[in-house]
Amino acid sequence: MIKSFRLKNILLIACAAFVFTACSSKSEEEYNKPAVYWYNKMMKQIASNDLDEADDTYTSLESEHRNSPFIPSAMLILINAHIDEEEYALANFYLDEYIKRFSLSKDIDYARYLKIKANFLGFKYQFRDQQLIDDTLVQIQDFKVKYSTSPYMPLVDTINARLEMAKASINREIADLYKRKDKELAVAFYEQKVKESWIEPSEIEPVSVPFYRSIFE
Hints:
Order of helices and strands: HHHHHHHHHH
Oligomer: single chain
Shape: elongated
Number of strands: 0
């Protein structure tokens, strides 16, 4: 009986401590801080590789100081952090917002390069990401027209070459498929597309795909 009474007391004390801690934590919720405070806090969280918290802190910065000069650089830093963690969907989310809001920024060519880079790095499956390749190639051509003097042009050219090779590789695989089915017109059509994508098809090395994935490609 005494043991049961003590156990109940311990449970009540534990519950009370939990409620007190929760209430205390809630009462210490941060808001109405200067922009530099949110910016510095976000930087520390990124340095600690705590991107979920960094996203939340950026939301506070953006909500309380929408027109702050810290916003553009905070977004670009957060974008790079998500790219480094291979979180390309989140990186693209911020990139789309940046490009929409800061189209006249001096760093807009850098943001559009990051968009191309994120798409390229997000290219995982050779036969299931054809639309992503085509969309990124369109973005590359647009970049070349609008930002021909950009210092990021060599990097964009490299990505362009690798995507063109990937596209040629896909078209060659399709041509081989039709060849096995004796569809000569289709073979000729896709072999021509290979030549249009890359000058010398023999330079393109086949993509190495694990056997367990090749079944579904």
